[in-house]
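Quick question: what would this complex look like in 3D?
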Amino acid sequence: MSEKTYKHFICVSCPVGCELEVTMEDGVATQVTGYTCKRGIEYGIDEATDPKRVVTSLVNVKGKQMPCSVRTNQAIPKRLIPDCVEALRGIELTPPVKIGDVVLKDVCGTGANVIATKNFD
Amino acid sequence: MHDVLIIGAGIAGSACAHFLARYDLDVLVIDAEYDIAVGTTRANSGIVHSGYDPEPGTLKAKYNIEGAHMYPKLAEELGFEFRKNGSLIVAFSEEERPAIEKLLARGIENGVEGLRIMESEELHQKEPNLNPDAVAALWAPTGGIVDPYGACLAFAETAARNGVVFRFGTRAEDVELKDGIWNVTVSYNGDATDALKGTSEVLQARIVINAAGLDSGRLNGCASKAEDFKITPRVGEYLLLDKAHGTAFDSTIFQVPTKNGKGVLVSPTIEGNLIIGPNAVVRESADDTWTTNEGLAQILREASKTWTKIPSWDAITNFAGLRPTCVESPDFHLGEPEDAPGFFNICGFDSPGLTAAPAVGKDFAERIAEKLDATEKAEYIDHRDAPRHIAKMTDEELAAAIAEDPAWGAVVCRCECVSEAEIVEALRSPVPAKTADAIKWRTRAGMGRCQSGFCLPITMQLIAKEHGVDLADVNKGRDGSFLTFGHRGCFDRLPEVEMGGAQ
Amino acid sequence: MTTKLTTNAAKAQATKLTVLGEINHMEVDIAIVGGGAAGLAAANAAYDAGITNVAIFERETATGGILKQCIHNGFGLHRFKEELSGPEYAAREHEAAVERGIQINYQAFVLSIEEGPLLRVISPTLGMTHVHAGAIILAMGSRERTRGMLQIPGTRPAGIYTAGTAQHMINLEGIIPGREVVMLGSGDIGLIVARRLAYEGANVKMVLNRSHFSGGLRRNIVQCLDDYGIPLRLLHTITNVYGKNRVEAVGVSQVDKATKKAIPGTEEIIPCDTVLLSVGLIPENELARAAGIVMDRGSKGALVDQTYQTSIPGIFSAGNVLHIHDLVDFVSEEGEGAGRAAAEYVKNGGAERAEVVEVVPGSGVSYVVPQRVTPAAQGKVLMRFRVRNIYKKPTVHVLADGVEVKKFKRQILIPAEMAEIKVDAELIAGHKTIEVTVEAGEPNE
């Protein structure tokens, strides 16, 4: 028999801030209540099962004081953020760097690439 | 061995250094801090008092009057900012009128020129923002406003150009007279760039000037048993208003003095801000320069008697300064104690110390020169060009300056309009600025509305480049006031993620 | 005012004529003060409207303004239909300006705006230059509120920064301003910086917020604080700073919700080495004020009409210098509006300014932009405003001389998010005053 548990979130899809309750059974979200629009359902399920975030950070550039800003090109599981941050700490780019250049491929096995968001000559 | 060792690079020590620099003497100035004027000189009202306040016959009265006379000419010769805006001591009711009449009589006895009672109509015409209740005021036209840091810097730089050596991060621990020579034990507590940091040594001098401000009582105790007094730090808290209010008053507005001092004043500053303060509270130590909610509320409350509608929301900063007060005998303690020949005290140098400093410095220099049988230098630089600021240049001057060096056209501090060239000049001064605070006080970069939010990173870069230090090692002020923890990667810790969704 | 249209050739010549040591003169159709999001968009829109002699005067060494240091994502959803980081957004705007051949002057600082209009500009390369402009667009952005403005008492050690300064240090200089951090204020920049610090290995101990609601967006509270277990303490403030050389601790006190004042006796000492302030932005209008442009006390920006024209004909204002925005997309949109209007002004001169309708904030509204609507307004007039409190299921009422002419229903309005309505120009015309008010549909907590 599966046990029902409940998780609570405040939806961030818009300023209304609906208080969502997500019913979990065997690690699966089976019901969302408290939403006003359907964005709330999606948000509640994602947050309760495997929340994802775009990670934005910095990597050093050889010979430059200013670091290069980077981001993942898609959201990655939130639980992998520390690993992603750690992976980026070891990287040093060599100029020139162009916006969109891949800094780190398939970061932490997520399928997402980390890309540069700044140009360096 | 030095001829003269001056302890303290505040306004008193720097003024002495300036006047001694005329003579063919080896003069060393030491200061425990990282720059000139870090103590009392930096944080006060910036007023050149006309001299109506001190008790007649006191040293305060004598040197106040002499000093006030000296300021206009010194400002011109040495290129620092001074404006004779006059002071008003306001009676807010007929009950207070006798007090200003008493000050008038005292001022006349002290020899202050131009004093008179200004009646209500003229008073309110002159100062339209003054509380309408004001009935009359003592008008002291010789009162002025000065940039105390700027005056101190002018003295110090002129002295340095004439051969006086300044050494910062050098604290006088002890003084002792041995075989007619003063032995001054010093410890070096400067920043990481100081090769002597953490060591100590004994410096010798024929003459010592004790201009150590809040620490001067302790040093006097080391040198003399005959003179015995204690210096108590008394704090004065201030609020500085945005330049939008710098013209709310033209003269310096005092209230009738109380036993605690000259009371809360409202005054334009030489830089065009408006200053409100100070109160007077006794503090434990010379480092206790914090401000308090109660203190700031108190000065606002008391100042509202002068200006009923103070725009306190337009305050850009608040600060506190400590006065080195000798509570039991509140006059200045100047000169050699009878058991310490060659040890010149400048103690209990609270208000009107700023005004009196050049007069004391000149007097001491003459006495010391005579004592050491010193002659005047053959070559002496008696003039200092005022530091150039783009904020005060005409378009023609700007065009010429930028042609001479493009750095004059590179604005670093947008609020106060300070160029890169001004900062570089301060970094290359004969008494060089080495920290963000020293730059701020010399150039005003970071003094304005944004309080260095925009320019601090640029200033740090210029300091690092000029002095050959790492950007991450630039200090705000003294050693230990580090601005950053280092470059990226200085911490190992990884972020910890919380999955959220409390059950 | 007479305006001279100069050609690109003349522009090039004017630039070439730069003589160091003498006051130079430059003639442009439109001078733009500031090369951030608003300034770049204004320049590009003015160009696209047919005015090609446009010059940007940017005080820094690169365009983009604050976007340069906003390395987080979330920019451009409206404008580019994708989520970009700040530097990417800035780069797109910059490239658009470069494609159009917009003249961008770097390290160019505008000292003042004089009659003419004329801008007194200095830069290492321009020297001292008088820029004679057909029209001017003010796009100087904003600055952060400081400790001094909050009058936080205590000592004055190293380690007290605004969030934006800390962000600059980390993202543009690669230096780390703090290890154990307490933040006052939960503005969006502060929240973003808290996460940034966590990534760099610092420990943000708590974020304090004086009022009972945050000044930042909920998304940022969740994704910058909650995700990393950083506590947000509402109704708390810093009442003291301790530490001689570097910050050693702060005193944190509870705040009374009703009086908004710290409650004496509740101070708790929190050890830390850094205090960051994220307590609001102020439009940087010193230049405008000195030029005699009329200001709005509510928005702290210039008082403008629906074309973003200020009280001085030919001078326009857009972006954060006009009022504080939360989305750069709207800054760009506003910049474009000002750019088009300035181009129109250069081509056809100023519109009739008589019989303008005054727009004023009413109950619950802190300001409305524009503050004036001229008879030239056509179609829908966009009005942007901020509310003073949280309103659930509110109604926004538009009153013309006291009589309601239009109302709008909303799900929620919060002070952290700019609100907007579009009102038919016909409903506005002919009246003296338009008042915008907000009324809660459900009680506030």
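Answer marked as accepted. The two ends of chain B are 77 Å apart (CA to CA).
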